[in-house]
C-alpha cells in the first residue's frame, strides 16, 4: 500500500490538486502561494508540498525560483470537447495563434489508408498540409492534415499561416462542416517531435485523431495532432444521460 | 523540415494511422497485416513501416514475434466523452471490470482544497476511496475519490470491489447525479504509479480530474484518475455548433 500512504503518493495527490487549480486559472498573478500556505490548504507536510512542486516543475507547468517562489510558466489552454471548433477559434481568447506552414501541397497518390478514410475514388489525389501551431510565439501543436482534393485545393491559395482550417474550408468552399469523430490518445514525445515542439524527449503529449465530415456526412478532413500536454488540457461538461 | 519528410516523421505518421485502426478495432483477430501489405496500404517503405511498428511496440500497443508477425497486445478501450458514465458502466462490453480497494475510510479533516471543491461546511469530515481498476485482471487505472460524508458513508458498506461509484451513489443514496466537469491531462508515469499500473517509468498516462454534481448542482464527488494510455483512449463525436 506504499502508493496510497507514502510520500510519493501524497505528493502526487497534492500535485493533482495544484494542477487542477493552475489549469482553472486560479493563480492569476502567475505565482503560487508559498509552501507554508500550500501545506495548510492541501493538508500535507512541507516535504510533500516540495515534492509535489517538483513534479509540476518536471511537467513544465511551473518554475521554482529561489527567493521568489513558484511561478506558473505558461497558461494551460483548455479546449472544449463539447463542439467541433478549430484550435485557433477556441484559443484566440488566450493569445495570438500563428502557424508555421511546413508543408502544403497536392499529393498525387495519397496513402490508401488515408484515401479510404476520406472515401476518395481510386486514383484520386489529396492535399496535405502540415502546420506548427504557436500561441504567443511558443509551439503548441503539430497538425498534419489530409484533405479531399476539391476541399483542399482552394485552401492552398489562402492564409494558412493565419487562419483555422475549419474556417478556411467553410469560407473557401462554401461547404458547411457537420461533425467530427475525435479520438484522444496520450503518448510520449519521440526525439524528432520533441525538437519541433520544444519539449524534452519523452514528455507527455496528446495525440489527437480527428475525422471531420461535411454536413451531408461526407468525410473531407483527416487530421493527426500532437499537442503539448504542458500547455493544453481538454475539458468537457458531461450530462449524466 | 526534417520532421515532415525524414524517416522518423514518416514513421510517426504511419504509426498514427495504425494506432487509429487498432483503436477502431480493425484487426479483430489481433494480428496486423505483414509489412509488405502495410507498406502498400500506408504508402511507405518497409523501413518506415518497421520503424512505425517499433513505435507502437514502445507504446505497448503491439508485440512483434519473429515468424508470427505483429500482434495487438491488448484492446484499447474507448471511453465516450459525450455523457457522464462510470468507467465500469462503459467498459463492461469490453471485459470484466474489478477493483482492488486500496483505501476506503472516513477522513476527519480532509484537505481544505478538497473541502472547498466539495463545498463542505467548516470542520466537516469526508470519505476517501482509492481503487485500482482492472479490466480482465490487468491494471487499467488508479482512481482516487473524495466524497461528501453523507454521500460517501453509505458506500463504505457496499460492494466497492465490484461496482461503479456512480451506480453506488445513485443506489445507496437515492440521489440522482446531474453532471460532471471533466479536465483531461496527459502526463508521464512517476515510478510509484508506474509500479501500481504495471507500466514502464515515464509511460504516457491520462490524468483525469472530475467534479461530479447531484442533479441539484451540489458537488459531491472529486476524483483524480490515472489511466494507462496504452489501454485507453477518449472518444467523442462533436457537432459543429
Automatic annotation (TrEMBL), chains A, B:
<dbReference type="InterPro" id="IPR028978">
    <property type="entry name" value="Chorismate_lyase_/UTRA_dom_sf"/>
</dbReference>
<dbReference type="InterPro" id="IPR036388">
    <property type="entry name" value="WH-like_DNA-bd_sf"/>
</dbReference>
<keyword id="KW-0804">Transcription</keyword>
<dbReference type="InterPro" id="IPR011663">
    <property type="entry name" value="UTRA"/>
</dbReference>
<dbReference type="InterPro" id="IPR000524">
    <property type="entry name" value="Tscrpt_reg_HTH_GntR"/>
</dbReference>
<feature type="domain" description="HTH gntR-type">
    <location>
        <begin position="8"/>
        <end position="75"/>
    </location>
</feature>
<dbReference type="InterPro" id="IPR036390">
    <property type="entry name" value="WH_DNA-bd_sf"/>
</dbReference>
<keyword id="KW-0805">Transcription regulation</keyword>
<dbReference type="Pfam" id="PF07702">
    <property type="entry name" value="UTRA"/>
</dbReference>
<keyword id="KW-0238">DNA-binding</keyword>
<dbReference type="Pfam" id="PF00392">
    <property type="entry name" value="GntR"/>
</dbReference>
<protein>
    <submittedName>
        <fullName>GntR family transcriptional regulator</fullName>
    </submittedName>
</protein>
<dbReference type="InterPro" id="IPR050679">
    <property type="entry name" value="Bact_HTH_transcr_reg"/>
</dbReference>
Amino acid at each position: 500500500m506504499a502508493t496510497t500512504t507514502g510520500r510519493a503518493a501524497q505528493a502526487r495527490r497534492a500535485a493533482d490538486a495544484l494542477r487542477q487549480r493552475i489549469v482553472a486559472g486560479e493563480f492569476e498573478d502567475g505565482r503560487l502561494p508559498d509552501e507554508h500556505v500550500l501545506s495548510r490548504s492541501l493538508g500535507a507536510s512541507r516535504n510533500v508540498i516540495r515534492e509535489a512542486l517538483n513534479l509540476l516543475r518536471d511537467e513544465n507547468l511551473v518554475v521554482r525560483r529561489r527567493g521568489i517562489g513558484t511561478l506558473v510558466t505558461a497558461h494551460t489552454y483548455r479546449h472544449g470537447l463539447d463542439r467541433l471548433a478549430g484550435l485557433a477559434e477556441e484559443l484566440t481568447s488566450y493569445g495570438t495563434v500563428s502557424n508555421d506552414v511546413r508543408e502544403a501541397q497536392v499529393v498525387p497518390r495519397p496513402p490508401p489508408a488515408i484515401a479510404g478514410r476520406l472515401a476518395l475514388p481510386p486514383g484520386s489525389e489529396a492535399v496535405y498540409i502540415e502546420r506548427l501551431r504557436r500561441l504567443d510565439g511558443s509551439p503548441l501543436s503539430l497538425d498534419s492534415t489530409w484533405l479531399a482534393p476539391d476541399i483542399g485545393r482552394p485552401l492552398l491559395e489562402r492564409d494558412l499561416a493565419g487562419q483555422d482550417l475549419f474556417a478556411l474550408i467553410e469560407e473557401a468552399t462554401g461547404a458547411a462542416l457537420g461533425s467530427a469523430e475525435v479520438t484522444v490518445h496520450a503518448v510520449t514525445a519521440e526525439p524528432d517531435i520533441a525538437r519541433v515542439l520544444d519539449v524534452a524527449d519523452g514528455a507527455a503529449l496528446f495525440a489527437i485523431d480527428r475525422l471531420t465530415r461535411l454536413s451531408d456526412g461526407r468525410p473531407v478532413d483527416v487530421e493527426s495532432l500532437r499537442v503539448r500536454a504542458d500547455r493544453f488540457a481538454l475539458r468537457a461538461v458531461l450530462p449524466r444521460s
